[in-house]
Request: fold
Amino acid sequence: MTEPLWEDERPRLAAMGPVKVRVPAKINLHLGVGPLREDGYHEVTTVYHAVGLFDEITARPAETLVLTMDGEGTGELALDGTNLVIRAVQVLAAATGHEPHARLHLRKQIPLAAGLAGGSADAAAALVACDALWGTGLSREDLATIAARLGSDVPFLVLGGTALGLGRGERVSPVLAPGRAWHWVLALADGGLSTPDVYRELDRLRAAGLVAAAAGSTDGILAALRQRDAAVLAASLVNDLQPAALSLRPSLRDTLDAGAAAGSLAGVVSGSGPTCAFLCRDAANADAVAKGLEESGTCRAARTATGPVPGARLT
Ligand code: C5P
Reply:
């Protein structure tokens, strides 16, 4: 990857015209889930990976806060204070003493409640967009701290690339791996899965002794990334939430089987699901896997995407 993970050339003066920010979806190459903490979160050890399926926010100066949207899931997302984009604007405004004023338009390709952190991505994009629109002068550390208050995955979506996530996922640090593009197919499902429900189901399965304790260390996946061999990476993908997602949505087993039959190297539920991510050898293999998945009827749609890509960035 040649692009810097953080651009520190973010504008320090308020923008006069519109600013546009593009933000990717994430998958987890490794998601080890530890015990439930007292604050209701689980301690995780994860390797995040940003992939090229993008949402885009355009922000313009305004006298109030207005949010419109089009694309994936439009009409299902509330446009009020429960929307993570609105919260991001409000939290950034409170932290900087700025009025929470902007006219935002969100163009969505990342589905909702899909295990791709679409909502967190939009929050990250809103932070970066309003930071530029208002010229807040925040450091990247300040922005990451604000991002963590919005959700566990939001700091990663500001950072992008491939990164280790600790704590509840909000403590991120870049993984330094030799540059190469990995080819993925994302099998999008009908309907979402609630992240808290999936974590709760994992706790239930563990309490009943039906699934093993947390996955081991990230050494395997980090070594695989360094080797730059897709077959090695495929053998190292881990998601502790997968049994819970399969328990709540047994039909995902058919999707995983269809991806395998279509020739992918490996398939894994993405985060809390229901999206399944398939690692492929190359672009041609990914096109064939996407076609096979769509023909199988086991998913709503299949999208090819490469990773890693940068996080929320001005375009
Ligand atoms: O951080 P975020 O708001 O995205 O998390 C949504 C929910 O997912 C949390 O309220 C919690 O139920 C669950 N979660 C968890 N452990 C994590 C991250 C999320 O239990 N590390």
